Amino acid sequence: MVWFVGAGPGAGDLITVRGQKLLREADVVIYAGSLVNPELLDNCKTDCEIHNSAYMTLEEVIQVMTEAEKRGKKTVRLHTGDPSIYGAIKEQMDWLDKEGIAYEVCPGVSAFSGAAAALKAEYTLPDVSQSVIITRMAGRTPVPEGQSVRDYASHGATMVLFLSTGLLAEMTGELIEGGYTADTPAAIVYKATWPEEEVFRCTVGTLEETAREHHITKTALIIVGNILDTEYRRSDLYHPDFSTGYRKAESEKS
Ligand code: SAH
């Protein structure tokens, strides 16, 4: 059996309780070494076989899983954040299907949630943004037609950009071409929830200069949108004049 487990965004105690239990029970762990906090491996049994996938190909990862399976071992594939976001898990699951190896997925706290916590931000504010667009700049991995940062910027919704810290000048260009103004609030969150976390608030126009000034080149998320600094309308859900399935509006009370 193979478990794909979300390690969380960085802090060792932001893995789920289920994920931690799976790590404690694992005979074989393959962890994404470039971003998973190595502290998490302290949860592993002393005789657990540990592999760092930063040095492995997909073929090698599958080989480790297949051999563990033959020996009746329990494998944890530990991915950063939540495995469903830029996790490259689909290709592993499809291969395991072909091999007839059973697997399950344990979700994790994604870096975009870690970044919101670091910013003390709410991505969805009434009258400002009711959507969060999770995307990336086209880099070595291209993005499909119609899914460019420029295309998404036209919605004016909150945007969280992964994997794009090396492309900030281009990102500013696309955001502005898409419809954001240069003074739209933005932020760079470096290593959200790690001890070395840093938060830099800036604007769409100053993203590149802010990163350069603080030597941020990787392991960061870019957050863009007016939710970072604006007037908004309070929620209906907690408004005294709003009835819900649990609570009657003040005006309807007799
Ligand atoms: N599955 C992961 C994302 C993997 S893609 C998740 O759900 O978070 C790797 C990219 O995620 C990095 O290039 C960086 O942009 C971002 N990232 C991962 N961890 C981060 C963290 N703690 N702080 C800021 N960005 C992070």
Give a concise summary.
With about 250 residues, the protein is α/β, with parallel strands linked by helices. The protein has helices spanning about 15-25, 60-70, 90-100, 110-120, 150-155, 170-180, 205-215, and strands at about 1-5, 30, 50, 75-80, 105, 130-135, 160, 185-190, 200-205, 220-225. The protein is built from seven helices and ten strands.
**Distance between the terminal alpha carbons, to the nearest Å?**
59 Å
Question: What proportion strand?
Answer: 15-25%
Please compute the radius of gyration using only Cα atoms: 21 Å
- Average pLDDT over all residues: 96
Shape: globular
Account of the protein in words:
The structure is a single chain. The strands form two sheets. Strands 3-2-4-1-5 form a five-stranded parallel β-sheet, sandwiched between helices. Strands 6-7-10-8-9 form a five-stranded mixed β-sheet, sandwiched between helices. α2 crosses α3. The chain has 254 residues and is of the alpha/beta class. It has seven helices and ten strands. Helix content is 25%, strand content 19%. It is globular and about 65 Å long. The longest helix has 13 residues, at 58-70. It has helices spanning 17-25, 58-70, 90-99, 111-119, 149-153, 168-178, 207-213; strands at residues 2-6, 28-31, 49-52, 75-79, 103-106, 132-136, 158-162, 185-190, 198-203, 220-224. It binds S-adenosyl-L-homocysteine. The site of S-adenosyl-L-homocysteine has 24 residues, from α4 and β10.
Blueprint (SSEs and pairs):
Layout: E1 2-6, H1 17-25, E2 28-31, E3 49-52, H2 58-70, E4 75-79, H3 90-99, E5 103-106, H4 111-119, E6 132-136, H5 149-153, E7 158-162, H6 168-178, E8 185-190, E9 198-203, H7 207-213, E10 220-224
Parallel strand pairs: 1-4, 1-5, 2-3, 2-4, 6-7
Antiparallel strand pairs: 7-10, 8-9, 8-10
The protein binds S-adenosyl-L-homocysteine.
